Amino acid sequence: MNERDEALKLLLQRAAPGPADRELRRDLWPEMRRRLDRPPVHIPLVDLALAATLILCLLLFPETIPSVLYLL
Amino acid sequence: MMGTVEAELEQFTRGDIQAFEALFREYQREVYGWIIRIVHDSGAAEDLTIETFWRIYRARTRFDPRRSFGPWARRIATNLALEHLSRRRTERSLDDGLPMRALATRAPDPAIWADVCAKVLAAFDELPAKLRVTATLAMIEERPYAEIADALGISTNGVKSRVFRAVRLLRKSLEKRGVCP
After folding, report:
1. Does the distance separating the beta carbons of B103 and A18 come in below 8 Å?
2. Range of the domain at A52
């Protein structure tokens, strides 16, 4: 780094020094445990089939898209 | 013969929650400390630490227990911090302004310093996220290039190139704002 880059570096360090306290103040494991225990999102097959049918219909009959959008 | 650490990592890759908990407790501070260097926000750093370990847990079967856990965790943490910075396109909060105000009160002309700092921060926030992360680690945190390269999954020359581009863009942006460091 040349002198000008060093000056820019100093300016950056003074303008954006970041938080002074960088220590983790609490144990994050309980939160992690909750995250692990959360049941995975399950989408019922019926919903997936309905969505697929709707997409297929829209692809086959694109002229219906404005009507569908209007009804939403 | 397999060492204790390797055995623990082996158990972790098989989905053993106790082994994962041991790893989590051992590395949570290190991961948090790395993330906060990049995002400069303790709340976000905590969330990203959890998210990092969540991704680590999901990807456990791909981890080779003979490798070191720390650098792998750090790389995942860096990617997440990068995603976070890309999403958060800046409105700096009041708290973020504190160091600037502290600086302003120490400077000979606080108003001018505050203005310069605001311009520097604005220019810095305009950098693409990849350059911003590299510049943060290299220029503000002064981490070794090899460490940054490892965390970003690029070569040391790649880091140098990003720092060079970041400096060039920053300078251009600052000149537009009337600041010539």
Report:
1. no
2. 44-72
**Cβ contacts of A12 on chain B, cutoff 8 Å:** 120, 124, 135, 139-140, 170
Contact between residue A21 and residue B37 where contact means Cβ atoms under 8 Å apart: no
Complex ipTM tops 0.95: no
**CATH number where B102 lies:** 1.10.10.10
* pTM greater than the 0.80 cutoff: no
Locus of tokens 């001018």: B112
Tell which A residues from 8 to 47 touch B, by Cβ distance under 8 Å: 8-9, 11-19, 21-24, 27-29, 31-33, 35-36
DSSP notation for A36-70:
HHSPPP---HHHHHHHHHHHHHHHH-GGGHHHHHH
Domain boundary among B87, B110, B138: B87
- What pLDDT digit, counting tens, does each position of A15-59 carry? 888 788 888 989 999 999 999 998 877 888 888 999 999 889 888
